[in-house]
Amino acid sequence: MKVFKGRPVVPGTAQAAALVSNAGFNTLASFQKSLMFGDKKSTCSDQNNTELYQQPMAGKALCMPQTIGSTTGGMVLYCAVEMGQSPACLLFSKPIDSLAAAGAILAGVWSDIPMPTVDSLGDDFLQYVKSGMPVAVAPDGTVTVG
Amino acid sequence: MQLTQQQQAMLDGAQGKALAKVMKTLVMYGETFGATRMVPVTSDYGHLVTSFGLGVLKPVYALLDEIIADGVVAKQQFSVDPRPLQKGVPVTLLQSLVFRLMYSKQTEYEARLQKLGLMGDDAFTCACYQPETGNTPQQGQVLSWAESSAVVYANSVLGARCNRNSGIIDIFGSIAGFVPEFGLLTDEGRRATWVVELKTTKLPPAQVLGSAIGMKVLEEVPYIRGLDAYLGNELTPAVQDYLKDMGAATASNGAVGLYHVQGLTPEAVQQGDALLAPQTNTYVIDDAELQRVMDSYPCIWKEADAEPKMCFIGCPHLSLSQLQSWTTRLERALQQQGREKVAIPTVLTAAPAVVKEFEQTPDAARLQATGAVLASICPLMYMNNPLCGKLPIITNSNKLRTYTSARYATDERILAAITQGGVLQ
């Protein structure tokens, strides 16, 4: 077990299995098929992300360096939350990017469904955490892995 | 964040609950990135990324309805990304039925946009900054835009200032009339943290160079050296087209919101190496690196060696000069093949206002004679139809490749495929 301390962008608690992308997470490419066709598991459709492609994302602790790709990204995350298809939480090793921040904040302000989001967890976090590991998130940005 | 009295009142709900939530979103967004104040949006127009009335975007419609019901409109008009559908674009009856189901809310969504401040019926394009559409910001103006390819162009080629805003955040800035000051709105945030040394033996394909840069630097700012040796030091229409396509690939294959090209883009010309941050990384791109990047693109067609059934050219939307160039190249290639028409359905896409301008020229009839279709749709939205997405479709767009099953090829290979037919060489 290892504990990491980050910054709570949208504070909250979550417990979920980790799903790890060491490459930048392309939000639109990853979610567009599952949102369009109501796939409640949110199967990742990003062909360029070999770690996540065809993996279910809903209810997972999504761990990544940052998000990349289309500026629909924040809106896509917001829709995923409202439609009950979002990850349980977003965990970033680096400072959060503007698109992911928009999605997390839109969900925090305009939705009743929480998606705790923590950034700046450090490169050590992404080196340690592996897909399937249990992850617990505390409101102060403490993330316990294992 | 320090707010003015007017901004604080808005946050406190003095102008209604919806506007208070808009303000709260912008404040939280800014505070996440250390913004200490809001700055006025100074461009004439905004630009929104969400142009499609997908039936499943109910949360977005509900949010906009809440805003509209409170009597809120944007303080500036805005353009918006391309429409998903248009008559004349090849579709089967079954595909057409699926499209109607998918984009069942298009009319209602466009009505919402009109209530909020849409520029006009021709304002549907991802390349809103082209003069024909008329949403061309000036250097130093502050924007509240989304659409990754438009933001990176406005920042890099025009010298405007805009963060990589998400959909919804874009309209919030236009509604409030101000945006939080951070990132690419600041001098510090516009300094380059990567130096890209171009050491190729010829001008690289714009979409591959952009892809390589985007994948390497992600959201950081690159300063590109060596490209001016091929492009010169003047932002001619052809150079602007190259930078448009390169930038779109940097933004979609990575998350680049601003790049500088030594001796070419406005801030690089004005400030030179002073744009470099104290600590920079270096990325050398030679012919082998470009080949490595191209070889890394996966092909997710069911049969990798299938004959292409369709081709899209123009993501982001083509300029007038690109339409003219493609017309000439198509004609020549068809003549060389002894053909009159393209071998597979081929769709070129451009802004409605660009298409209108093009149709005033003799080139329009020449292009039509090749059998190619000219439209103003978003190819990505076409490919989102599962029946279309299953087809072996080729494109010269690295953005379209990234988000769909379309297979990328350089302009030369695309030209050969659509004028000769057969498998992609």
Characterization of the model:
The complex is a heterodimer of chains A (146) and B (425). Helices cover 27% and strands 26% of the residues of chain A. By secondary structure, chain A is of the alpha/beta class. Chain A has one domain: Phosphohistidine domain (Glucose Oxidase, domain 1), CATH 3.50.30.10. In chain A, the strands form 2 sheets. Chain A has an 8-stranded mixed sheet. In chain A, strands 4-6 form a two-stranded parallel sheet. In chain A, helix 1 (27-36) runs parallel beside helix 2 (73-82). Chain A starts with a strand and ends with a strand. Chain B folds into 3 domains: 5-185, Aconitase, domain 3 (2-Layer Sandwich), CATH 3.30.499; 191-295, no CATH class; 310-420. Chain B has 19 helices and 13 strands. In chain B, the strands form 4 sheets. In chain B, strands 11-10-9-12-13 form a 5-stranded parallel sheet. A 4-stranded parallel sheet of chain B has the order 7-6-5-8. Chain B has a two-stranded antiparallel ribbon with strand order 1-4. The mean pLDDT of chain B is 96. Chain A binds chain B through residues 9, 24, 26, 28-29, 32, 35-38, 47-48, 65-76, 78-79, 81-83, 96-99, 101-103, 105-106, 108-111, and chain B through 21, 24-25, 28-29, 32-33, 49-50, 54, 56-60, 63, 102, 146-148, 151, 163-170, 183, 214, 218-219, 251-255, 298, 300, 384, 386, 402-403, 405.
